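Good morning C.,

I know you're traveling, so I'll keep this short. The sequence:
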Amino acid sequence: MNYSQFLFSQLLSLYDEDFANLAYDIQYGEAMVLHQEFEKSNFNVDILSEYDCIINYLNNSYNK
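The tokens, ready to paste straight into the viewer:
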């Protein structure tokens, strides 16, 4: 797991209580899949920080 994937998984756990309550080995697999979706999304842009891109993606995905 690299920094980007770790950051994504940590932020995801703040947005998704079900994800946060999963066992870590299951979280890992799910986070990797969701991180790949984020990387392909229109939210992953070069003009914002990675943190801001992930937050925008999660806000959109979880309607916050």
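Safe travels,
E.
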